[in-house]
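Predict structure. Chain length: 204.
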Amino acid sequence: MELIKKYFKDLSTKQVQQFEKLEELYKEWNLKINVISRKDINEIYLKHVLHSLAISKVINFKDNTSIIDVGTGGGFPGIPLAIMYPKVQFHLVDSIRKKILVVNEVSKSLKLENVRTSHSRAENLEGKYDFVISRAVTKMREFKKLIRGKFNSYSFNDLDNGIIYLKGGDLTIELLGINNKQILISDYYEEEFFETKKIVYVKS
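Prediction complete.
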């Protein structure tokens, strides 16, 4: 939790309390339904929460922005961002029912009123959003096919509507021919874990 306070100094008391509860909630649920690898659960703030919040270093979402988190798994990056942006609407989606069950319970325990969920594949959902966020679900070309037609046409944030994708490693071949912007997370965080991690932005 000290990691979160290190990089985010303006959190409200309520946000601090919500972030503090995450470890306990995920440890409890992970014993029943494995959504975070056993080796990572003790580093949840570094490898999951702080990683998710890197998106907020690149864009400060304006109130009433609508965001869909595709392949949210246990709720990353959607849950930490929903805590950070209580006036932004998040739709967390995963095709695996037990993962959405965990997301629902965590969200309910934190009293996150800006989160809704769907047990579904993204391509089967109706609706349009300002941003699609995700954490390394599949290769970008395939991902773009999954979320085709999901964007609102009008942009009102500092970044135009589009995909914000958390991914690591060398993406040269994967992103060949795709107009994108890559931001190194190590520009914002000093921990070694983030040395190869990137945020990829692709305009809708």
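Summary: The mean pLDDT is 96.
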